[in-house]
Design a protein that fits this description.
CATH architecture of the largest domain: 3-Layer(aba) Sandwich
Structural class: alpha/beta
CATH class of the largest domain: Alpha Beta
Strand order of the largest sheet: 3-2-1-4-5-6-8
Number of domains: 2
Distance between the termini: 42 Å
Radius of gyration: 20 Å
InterPro entries: Ergot_Alk_Oxidoreductase, NAD(P)-bd_dom, NAD(P)-bd_dom_sf
Strand content: 15-25%
Largest sheet: 7 strands, parallel
Number of strands: 9
Order of helices and strands: EHEEHEHEHHEHEHEHEHHHHH
Shape: globular
Low-confidence stretches: none
Number of helices: 13
Length: about 290
């Protein structure tokens, strides 16, 4: 049985490929640039782009199961081509925002395309990734060993390690998970200050935390450019999930994420395991902060 992983060189997809190889599965990987893929030995690497569905057709030949990276623009066509080629089961990388009803036009469109195809399906819906803050805090820590960010001692969400998302995706390829959606979190709620301390412990160095206002943080992130600038308004609560202007007090978003803030049971239900801690994630990524 061959399993095709789309988005195979991405944050989650790379882990999915590696874990499937470790499990002894026959793995095929789809990537836009095979020359730069750097995937494990034995993986069949195919060139293709989900935004160009015809380019993916050769990779579907002989595939029974598919890990689908979300591209809502072409999801229906890609799924139809997969079905025509004989794919019978799809695991969708989705998002916890679908569970909350905040995502009404992105991941939900991919889920719907798969469900309406008549194929066997399972959805994996992770909440906040532990790695979300890496493009923001990483440069700060490298430059000054100081994180300047709000919310210091507020008990925040329970973010999940990207490798654990992959672990669930691999588990969901089993028959018993067909027709289910799993909403994922990590095993512990954390404060910003606690996360910074975990990174400091991994580095075995002092990393300072300086609390700033949301407005000050937005100026800092916008000046950084890239992902930090692009995500600043959402990360700091100035806009709703869909990008609409916050309608709460002082112009902040008042969307309620409380159902996702605490550790959720679905990781354990899907895998029978306990998820990796933030301290483990910090050790795994320590070189990104040096």
């Amino acid at each position: 049985m061959t399993i095709l992983v789309t988005g195979a060189t991405g944050l989650v997809g790379r882990h999915v490929v590696g874990q499937l190889v470790q499990a002894g599965e026959s793995v095929r990987a789809l990537t836009r640039n095979p020359a730069k893929a750097r995937l494990p030995e034995g993986v069949e690497v195919f060139q293709g782009d989900l935004l160009e569905p015809a380019s993916v057709v050769p990779a579907f030949e002989g595939v029974q199961k598919l890990f689908l990276f979300p591209q809502p623009e072409t999801a229906a066509e890609v799924v139809d081509l997969a079905k025509q080629a004989g794919v019978r089961r799809i695991v969708v990388l989705s998002a916890a925002a679908v569970t909350l009803g905040f995502d009404t036009g992105y991941h939900v469109r991919v889920e719907r395309a798969v469900e309406e195809s008549g194929l066997e399906w399972t959805h994996v819906r992770p909440g906040e990734f532990m790695t979300n803050m890496l493009p923001i805090w990483g440069p700060m820590i490298k430059e000054s060993r100081t994180v300047r960010y709000p919310f210091g001692d507020d008990l925040g969400s329970a973010p999940i390690h990207e490798a654990d998302i992959a672990t669930v995706a691999v588990a969901l390829l089993e028959d018993k998970h067909v027709g289910k959606a799993y909403t994922l979190s990590g095993p512990e709620q954390l404060t910003v200050r606690g996360q910074v301390q975990a990174i400091a412990d991994a580095l075995n160095e002092t990393v300072h935390y300086e609390e700033v206002t949301r407005e000050e943080a937005r100026d800092i992130l916008k000046a950084m450019g890239g992902f930090a600038a692009e995500s600043a308004d959402l990360q700091l609560g100035f806009v709703d999930y869909d990008g609409g202007e916050g309608s709460g007090d002082q112009g902040y978003s008042d969307q309620d994420y409380s159902d996702l803030m605490k550790p959720l049971p679905d990781f354990g239900l899907a895998t029978g395991k306990t998820g990796r801690t933030y301290a483990e994630w910090a050790r795994d990524h320590v070189d990104d902060f040096r």
